[in-house]
Amino acid sequence: MKVHVDPERCQGHTLCAMVAPKSFELSDIDGHSSAVSEDVPPDQEEQVREAAQSCPERAITIT
Ligand code: F3S
């Protein structure tokens, strides 16, 4: 499973990093999120799915 955060859509709501803190990191500069790793470890898949659903901007894509 792979995850991507669209930097154009992300508005820094931070929910992704609260739901899946191991998989998303927030920029100190603009507060926007990015994936720690494009490849999601199996033990993080559930949290990453929840994070994607939690994002109000639908900025997180899972493939
Ligand atoms: Fe951005 Fe959505 Fe996370 S707006 S900070 S990707 S909850």
Automatic annotation (TrEMBL):
Protein name (record): Ferredoxin
Iron is among the record's keywords: yes
Residue ranges of the region described as Disordered: 31-63
Coiled coil: none
A GO MF label: 3 iron, 4 sulfur cluster binding
Highest taxon above the source species: Bacteria
Cofactor(s) it depends on: [3Fe-4S] cluster
TM helices/strands, residue ranges: none
SUPFAM superfamilies: 4Fe-4S ferredoxins
Summary of the function given for this chain in its UniProt record: Ferredoxins are iron-sulfur proteins that transfer electrons in a wide variety of metabolic reactions.
Keywords: 3Fe-4S, Electron transport, Iron, Iron-sulfur, Metal-binding, Transport
